[in-house]
């Protein structure tokens, strides 16, 4: 007899995943996406281990909103692999992928001057393997095959500042057709070497530092980074502020360890003129990271902590799903002005943008299309009427970020007046979903392939050969 079980979940759709109990990365298993009590789960069916449930969202209403924000994909200009075994075994980028590389990661070394407990790459002192300039040139050539005008290259590692040619590499990439260049760093060299900071400054606009910044608490830092990094982080930030080098703080969030500090990190970031925002990343299972069970948290949990904090101005309508990868990235943008106490006055603008402007077109927001949005931006940065007229005359257009329409704004409203909060969740063996992975827009760039960041880190055996850590 069929029966009605009152507390059973509601089926939403089907996908495929891997079993994280038997750690089998060779076989995809049937998986349902279900909801129950306003939460969303993967219900995985492994022939060997049976059924497991993995929470992927704590907010079903927001989950539904993510589906609404999904936009038609911007595709790579060329595919580098063929479909042989199907996703995710054919990385990449293969013809099944539904996104281009918004962010291209250039891993230039395996070496690091730290040994963090939460290193997805398991880097540590002594690993070496600095990539040669020739290899880096090949990486750039590969990226340019798939994107003739890349939006953003992030130089990473290991710790990229241990590479003896780091400045030459940054200069070389800065001259390429890339729009923005980022250096992902633990901040040690920035804190200790002012000549290096001057060299970074000389790179000019369109360059940004992506600085590890997980906590303001020494004990938490010891847990995450295996050493107290607080003084280093503060010294690095003081240097970046002194030279006014655009900086994004990057906070890896581990449940029960530093998730309570999310509002505090945002508040702290507002004291710095050079800080353009904070990126929060929930821990993923990769490298040395233990992200099972108790330590895991979802994008929606981080988002809830941000919008529930009364001291920061980002509300429910301001933290929106990013239309190119809505389930995995949430963004909130604000116009920023430093007040007389040198604290950032933030006016969120994302909530004022009609969804259709982000999802239905890739173009320019005109004043007529969204008067309210442009008005908010103008008022926040206290601009005079003449500048407002400049907007009306459609004279000045700026595209501040990939996946974000051009919008008209005054000439002196530049990147200094932008502040953003980003929550970026990656996939691992636990939360893997073969539908979502095709939207991933962060790619590791190899000399001959471009591989989504998550599948790169999962250790999947690709049909086109193993990932290539060329030296
Ligand atoms: S993750 Fe993307 S590139 Fe990799 S196999 Fe799947 S569709 Fe292809
Ligand atoms: S997380 Fe960064 S700083 Fe820490 S060990 Fe890994 S590469 Fe080094």
Automatic annotation (TrEMBL):
User: Looking at the keywords, is S-adenosyl-L-methionine present?
Assistant: yes
Alphabetized GO MF terms: catalytic activity; iron-sulfur cluster binding; metal ion binding
What sections of the protein cross the membrane?
none
Please state every residue range assigned to the domain named Radical SAM core: 95-317
Note the CDD domains from the entry. Answer: Radical_SAM
Keywords on record: Iron, Iron-sulfur, Metal-binding, S-adenosyl-L-methionine
Q: Which cofactor does it need?
A: [4Fe-4S] cluster
Q: Return the InterPro entries for the record.
A: Aldolase_TIM (IPR013785), Elp3/MiaA/NifB-like_rSAM (IPR006638), Methyltransferase_Class_D (IPR034474), rSAM (IPR007197), rSAM_sf (IPR058240), Zn_ribbon_HMPTM (IPR056488)
Source organism, top-level taxon: Bacteria
Q: What is this protein called?
A: Radical SAM core domain-containing protein
